[in-house]
Amino acid sequence: MACVGKPYHRRNWWDERYRKGEAGWDMGKVSPPLLDLVRRGRLEPCKVLVPGCGNGYDVHFLARRGFDAVGVDYALLATREAERLAKEKGIAARFIRRDFFDYARRTRDRFDLIFEQTFFCAVGREQWGSYVRSVARLIRPGGLLIGLFFDFKDTGGGPPFPTSREEVRDLFSPFFTIEHLARCRTSHPARKGNELLGRFRKRRSLR
Q1: Does position 61 have pLDDT exceeding 70, yes or no?
Q2: 68 alpha-carbon distance from chain centroid
Q3: CB contact at 8 A, 126 and 102
Q4: Contact (Cβ atoms closer than 8 angstroms) between residue 145 and residue 34
Q5: Which of 104, 108, 119, 158 yields a CA-CA distance of 20 to 30 A from 70?
Q6: Residue 12 lies in a domain
């Protein structure tokens, strides 16, 4: 990521956000849409990856629910906290401190499910194509990507970087069948009305 040259592509930029308590994306608990999907039986235990997992709340939750859960993040403070919480609570989850794009290129790991929340919106538009290719590489044919995508008026700032339903569909459809993509009804109150929830199935044969 660092080769792109944006401040938010540097590890120390994210560590500084955590150090200063400026991690506004951190809700301090499991993502409500993920909680809802698992509680309603819409997601069954499987091997799952959470990219840009931060302090690991979603990974911890999935591991407690019987998933083989892995989180990737290259922010040192975040992964340390994720590991500390897992150890403290006796949660069998794995955390990888690494650049996600490098991990996707080099790993032999493959997953049944990827849960996306606040990573796609953080890497910047210039890397969205690389992001889609990376998750497509990591998900087994027939596997799922469940994603939350910010959809609000673009003010030119960021991260987070907003997108649109049409843009998400165009980016992912070459690799995935779009089974669902609509306004999320179970968002955290701070994000109500600003999130799209997507369910994308990896094509068994690419176009």
Answers
A1: yes
A2: 16
A3: no
A4: no
A5: 158
A6: no
> Is 44 exposed, middle or buried, given 0-12, 13-18 or 19+ CB atoms closer than 10 A?
exposed
- Count Cβ atoms below 10 Å from residue 184 Cβ, excluding itself: 21
**pLDDT band at 178, cuts 50/70/90?**
very high
Range of the domain at 70: 29-202
Within 10 angstroms of residue 8's Cβ, the number of other Cβ atoms is 15
Question: For the chain, how many helices (H) and strands (E)?
Answer: 8, 7
Which pLDDT score, from 0 to 100, does residue 189 have?
81
Tokens of 131: 């992001």
110-136 pLDDT, tens digit each: 999 999 998 998 888 899 999 999 999
CATH code, 36: 3.40.50.150
**Is 89 a member of any domain?**
yes
pTM: 0.90
Is 17 inside a domain boundary? no
